[in-house]
Design a protein that fits this description.
The complex is a heterodimer of chains A (208) and B (507).
Chain A: E1 14-16, E2 23-25, H1 45-65, E3 69-73, E4 76-80, H2 82-91, H3 95-125, H4 129-143, H5 148-159, E5 166-170, H6 172-190, H7 194-202
Antiparallel strand pairs in A: 1-2, 3-4, 3-5
Chain B: H1 17-37, E1 40-45, E2 57-60, E3 63-73, E4 79-85, E5 98-102, E6 105-107, E7 110-112, H2 116-119, E8 122-126, E9 136-138, E10 152-159, E11 170-173, E12 176-187, E13 192-200, E14 213-215, E15 219-224, E16 227-232, H3 235-240, E17 243-245, E18 262-266, H4 269-273, E19 281-287, E20 299-302, E21 305-313, E22 326-332, H5 334-337, H6 345-358, E23 360-368, E24 373-380, E25 390-392, E26 395-398, H7 405-422, H8 425-451, H9 458-486, H10 490-493
Parallel strand pairs in B: 1-9, 2-8, 10-18, 11-17, 14-18, 19-26, 20-24
Antiparallel strand pairs in B: 1-4, 2-3, 3-4, 5-8, 6-7, 10-13, 11-12, 12-13, 14-17, 15-16, 19-22, 20-21, 21-22, 23-24, 25-26
Classes of the chains: A mainly alpha (208), B alpha+beta (507).
C-alpha cells in the first residue's frame, strides 16, 4: 500500500466519517454512529473539483462581458458591466472603491480558478505538498468574500425601486457571477487536500 | 487485506454534467445578450440638443427599440449619433425610415412632445415601407406630420406666397378635413413657396390632374364685374390657414394622380376661376372713350362668351396722336375661338385678321351697372368701317368700335341734342305761324263756300231735281241693257210680245 504514507490512517484502513468525524475502519462501509458512508478519501474529488472549476471558468465570461446592473431612470436606461463600473469609479477618482471592486469581483475569481487548477495538478504531481496545502487554505478562506458584488446588486435591486423615477434590475451577469462564486466554493469544498500528501507519498504521478 | 476504495477511480463522475450545463447556460446568456443587441445605426443631426449618450432611448410608437450609444461631432460640424438598436428593430431600419428628436414643440397643430419635459427627449423612429436595409440615416429636424405607413396621397403645392399656411394646416374638401400640410419650404431660385401635403386614404382619389387647390385662410372679399363676393373657410382654417380643392370634373374620374405630383396653390377661389391661357394672342386696343371701370383681369367676351382677359390699361401722352387714345392690352385664347389644333399660333392670328375684315370689332361694355365695371366685347358689326389688324411697333392693334350699350346711347343722345340745338327754330316757328295764318284764311273761304249749300237754297233744289232725273234715266238704261243681254237682236226686231219663263223657274 504505497499509495499512502505508511503511518497514515488510510494506510491502516481507517477512514474519517465526513459527517461526525468518528474514525472507523473503512471496511464498515457506514459509520456506526451516524450511518454516513465511509470513504478513505473524498470520492471522485479531483474530477469534481476539475468539473466545477471548468464550469466556473465558462461562466466567468458572461459574468464579465454582460451587464450586471441595469439602472432605469427618467433620463433613460443604463446597463453596466463589472469592468465598466470599475472604470467608471476609477475615472471619477474613487480609487479605493475601484480597487475593491476589481479585487473582489475580477481578480479573486480568476486567482481562485487558477489556484484550484493548480491544486488539482498538485494532487497528481505531489510536489511541494506543504505550500499546496497552504494555498488550499487561502483559497477556501477567500472564496466567500467574492460574493460582494452579488450582495451589492441584491441590496440595490431590493432597495432602489422607485417605479418610473428610478429602478435597478439585475443584469444577466449577476446570475453568472453568482454561479462562478458558488461553483468555485463547491470546487474548493470537493477538493480533498489529503490527495496532495498521497501524491507526495508516492513520489511520482499516481497511475490513475 | 480489506478492499480499500481508491479515491481516484477511473470511472467518469456524473459531476461532469455541471460544466456542460455551465457551458450551455453561459453560452445561452451571451447569445441572448448579443442577439438582443441588434444592429448599430448612425443618424446625422444638426444639433444634439437633449441627446445623451447611453441614456436617450429610441422609441417607435412608444416602444423602446434602442438607445443612443455615442454622440460625436463630425468634421462638417454635424452631429453623428450612433444608435444601438434592439434585434426586433432590425426590420424597421429601411431606406425610407424617418428618425427625429421628440422635444416639446409648439406649432400650428398645437403643442406636442409635452411628456418629454418630464421624461427627457427621445428619438422617435417611424419605419418606412421599403425592403432595403439601411444603417446610416439623416435625422429630421422637424417631426413629420403624417406617419409614412398611413395610406394616402403625398402631393406638393407651389404657391406665390405662404398665405398663413403652416405645417399642420388642414386640407378640407366640402368642409371635411381630408388631409394636412406637412412641410413648408421656400424655394429661393423661383421665389415660390413649396408645401408638402398629405391627403388621407380614399380622399386621395378625389384629386385629379385638373384639380385646383386654393387657400382658404382668412376672409376673401372681392368686388368685381360679377358683383360683391365674400368667402370664408372654417374657423379652424381662418385661424390656422387651410387649403381646399374643387370637385373632380365628370370626365376625369378615372385618372388619379401619383405621389409627388405638384399642384399650383391658388391664393383664392377667385383665382382658380381665372382664365388660364396656354398660348394667348396679345392685342392692343386703342380707345377714344373713357376706360373707367376697365380693370386688369376683366373679361374679353365674344357675344357673352369669355375668350380672353384684359392684361392692362395704361396711358401715355403721345404728341402725334391727335385723339389721345388709351391703349388697352388684351390677350385672347386661340383655343376658344377656333377649332384649330392647339399651338397653331399663326393660324389663329390669321383667323382673327380675317374676322376683323368681316367686321369684328372690340368695344367697351358695362358689366355691372352698380359698380361700373367694364369689359371688352368683341362682336361682328355689319356697318363697321373697313379696318384691319395693324402691326404697330411690335403690337398688333385690333380695331375698336364705339361702345354700344349705355355709353353708345349716351353718345347718340348727345348728338341728337346737338342737332336739335343747331336747328333754326325761331325761323321755323315764324314760318309756321305765317303758314297757319294763310291756312286760316283759306279755311274761312271754304266755310263761306260751304255755307251756300243748304236745304232751302235754289241750287240745292236744282241739284236734287237733276239727280232724280239722272236716276230715272239710269233705270231705263238698265232695262235696255237687260233686254239687250237676253235678246241682242231685239235692237233690230224690237221687243218680243211674250218672254218665255227662265229655266228652272216656277210655273
Amino acid at each position: 500500500m504505497s499509495r499512502f504514507y505508511p503511518d497514515s490512517a488510510a494506510a491502516n484502513g481507517l477512514a474519517l466519517c465526513h459527517a461526525c468525524g468518528r474514525v472507523e475502519p473503512v471496511t464498515l462501509a457506514r459509520c456506526p454512529r451516524c450511518h454516513a458512508r465511509l470513504h478513505l478519501r473524498n470520492p471522485a474529488s479531483l474530477q469534481r473539483t476539475l468539473a466545477l472549476t471548468l464550469s466556473a471558468m465558462l461562466l466567468y465570461f458572461p459574468a464579465n462581458l454582460l451587464p450586471i446592473l441595469k439602472v432605469e431612470s427618467i433620463g433613460g436606461a443604463q446597463a453596466n458591466t463589472i469592468i465598466g463600473g470599475v472604470i467608471q469609479f476609477w475615472q471619477s477618482a474613487d480609487y479605493p472603491v475601484a480597487i475593491i471592486i476589481f479585487t473582489a469581483s475580477v481578480m479573486i475569481p480568476i486567482l481562485k480558478i487558477v489556484a484550484l487548477l493548480w491544486l488539482c495538478l498538485a494532487a497528481r504531481l505531489g510536489r511541494h505538498p506543504l505550500a499546496m496545502t497552504r494555498l488550499y487554505r487561502v483559497t477556501e478562506l477567500v472564496g466567500r468574500w467574492s460574493m460582494v458584488d452579488i450582495f451589492v446588486v441584491a441590496i440595490l435591486v431590493a432597495v432602489v425601486q422607485l417605479g418610473s423615477v428610478l429602478s435597478i434590475h439585475p443584469g444577466p451577469a449577476a446570475l453568472s457571477f453568482a454561479s462562478v462564486v458558488i461553483l468555485t466554493m463547491l470546487a474548493a469544498l470537493s477538493f480533498d487536500p489529503r490527495l496532495i500528501w498521497d501524491a507526495a507519498a508516492q513520489g511520482r504521478p499516481s497511475p490513475a | 487485506m480489506a478492499p480499500i476504495t481508491s479515491p481516484q477511480k477511473s470511472y467518469l463522475s456524473a459531476v461532469w454534467i455541471i460544466p456542460v450545463v455551465a457551458a450551455l447556460f453561459g453560452g445561452w446568456l451571451v447569445w441572448k445578450y448579443y442577439s438582443e443587441r441588434g444592429p448599430e445605426v448612425t443618424v446625422r443631426f444638426e444639433t444634439a440638443e437633449g441627446i445623451i449618450a447611453g441614456k436617450t432611448p429610441v422609441l417607435c410608437r412608444s416602444v423602446n427599440i434602442g438607445t443612443v450609444d455615442k454622440v460625436q461631432l463630425t468634421d462638417k460640424l454635424k452631429v453623428l449619433v450612433t444608435l444601438q438598436m434592439t434585434s426586433d428593430a432590425e426590420d424597421l431600419l429601411v431606406q425610407d425610415t424617418q428618425i427625429w428628436v421628440v422635444r416639446p414643440r409648439y406649432g400650428g397643430s398645437g403643442i406636442s412632445g409635452l411628456s418629454t419635459i418630464v421624461s427627457g427627449n427621445y428619438l422617435e423612429l417611424e419605419p418606412g415601407l421599403s425592403q432595403e436595409r439601411r444603417t446610416n440615416f439623416l435625422g429630421l429636424e422637424q417631426p413629420p406630420v403624417t406617419p409614412k405607413g398611413v395610406p394616402g396621397l403625398h402631393i406638393k403645392f407651389i404657391a406665390e406666397e405662404a398665405g398663413g399656411i403652416d405645417p399642420g394646416s388642414p386640407i378640407t374638401y366640402k368642409g371635411l378635413p381630408v388631409g394636412k400640410i406637412e412641410k413648408r419650404t421656400f424655394l429661393p431660385q423661383t421665389g415660390q413657396v413649396e408645401f408638402d401635403a398629405f391627403i388621407e386614404g380614399d380622399y386621395g382619389k378625389l384629386v385629379r390632374k385638373e384639380t385646383k387647390f386654393w387657400n382658404i385662410s382668412g376672409i376673401d372679399l372681392e368686388v368685381g364685374a360679377n358683383g360683391v363676393k365674400l368667402r370664408t373657410g372654417t374657423l379652424e382654417a381662418l385661424l390656422l390657414g387651410g387649403v381646399t380643392f374643387d370637385e373632380p370634373g365628370p370626365g376625369d374620374r378615372a385618372a388619379s394622380v401619383d405621389d409627388g405630383t405638384v399642384f399650383k396653390l391658388y391664393d383664392s377661389f377667385e383665382d382658380t376661376t381665372k382664365f388660364i391661357m396656354q398660348d394667348p394672342l396679345p392685342y392692343l386696343l386703342l380707345f377714344t372713350e373713357s376706360v373707367r371701370g376697365l380693370n386688369p383681369d376683366a373679361p374679353v367676351e365674344f357675344r357673352g362668351v369669355r375668350i380672353g382677359t384684359v392684361e392692362g390699361v395704361s396711358f401715355r401722352y403721345l404728341p402725334n396722336d391727335l385723339e389721345q387714345r388709351v391703349p388697352v392690352m388684351i390677350r385672347i385664347d386661340p383655343d376658344l375661338i377656333t377649332e384649330l389644333p392647339p399651338g397653331s399660333y399663326a393660324a389663329a392670328q390669321d383667323f382673327i385678321a380675317r374676322n376683323v375684315e368681316k367686321g369684328l370689332r372690340a368695344s367697351l361694355k358695362s358689366g355691372n351697372l352698380l359698380t361700373g365695371q367694364m369689359f371688352v366685347d368683341l362682336d361682328l358689326q355689319k356697318d363697321a368701317k373697313p379696318a384691319a389688324v395693324r402691326d404697330f411697333g411690335g403690337y398688333m392693334i385690333f380695331p375698336t368700335a364705339p361702345s354700344g350699350g349705355l355709353a353708345q346711347i349716351q353718345e347718340q343722345a348727345s348728338a341728337l341734342l346737338a342737332k336739335l340745338q343747331a336747328l333754326p327754330l325761331d325761323k321755323t316757328v315764324n314760318n309756321a305761324s305765317e303758314a297757319l295764318a294763310s291756312i286760316k284764311s283759306a279755311a274761312d273761304d271754304l266755310k263761306k263756300t260751304a255755307s251756300g249749300f243748304n236745304d232751302n237754297s235754289p241750287l240745292y233744289h236744282d241739284l236734287s231735281e237733276t239727280l232724280r232725273q239722272l236716276d230715272e234715266t239710269l233705270r231705263s238704261l238698265r232695262g235696255l241693257t237687260n233686254t239687250l243681254e237676253r235678246k241682242p237682236n231685239s235692237i233690230i226686231f224690237g221687243k218680243p210680245g211674250s218672254v218665255p219663263p227662265p229655266k228652272g223657274s216656277r210655273p
